[in-house]
């Protein structure tokens, strides 16, 4: 069962960047929950998160598998990542972009954390049965 921290709690982010890559080839079920937590930010800035896939961990797809729309407020934001139909993807990583506008400092500043957890098969079956 994959359960990993992509960004440790209270990581200060001031520019775009990438998390470390995660090898998901051993995952029993290729559905994951990425949770972004924005704990500190100021007005007039945004945070955008995408999850990218790779076959070898060095060359990354040009487009994200899935992305959160821009976030402007503190909170926890879950994102379901389903790569069950993409067996070529062996690695994933998070990429974030930040933006700041208006008055005050030009450099954005966020305190964030992010995690990636494999969704258990039982939970997927239960959700499918409820449909």
Describe, in plain words, how this protein is organized in 3D.
The protein has 131 residues and is mainly beta. Helices cover 8% and strands 49% of the residues. Strands 2, 3, 5, 6 and 8 form a five-stranded antiparallel beta sheet that branches. Strands 1-9-4-7 form a four-stranded antiparallel beta sheet, with no helix packed on it.
Keywords:
mainly beta; 131 residues; 49% strand; four-stranded antiparallel β-sheet; single chain
Q: Tell the overall outline.
A: globular
What fraction of residues sit in β-strands? over 45%
Low-confidence stretches: none
The residue-averaged pLDDT reads 93
Q: Approximately how much helix is present in the residues?
A: under 10%
The total of beta strands comes to 9
Distance between the termini: 25 Å
Number of discrete helical segments: 1
Order of helices and strands: EEEEEEEEEH
Which structural class matches the secondary elements? mainly beta
Spatial extent as radius of gyration: 16 Å
Largest sheet: 5 strands, antiparallel
Topology, element by element:
Layout: E1 3-13, E2 17-18, E3 22-23, E4 31-40, E5 45-54, E6 66-67, E7 75-82, E8 91-100, E9 110-118, H1 121-130
Antiparallel strand pairs: 1-9, 2-8, 3-8, 4-7, 4-9, 5-6, 5-8
Give me a quick take on this structure:
With 131 residues, the chain is mostly beta strands. The chain has 1 helix and 9 strands.
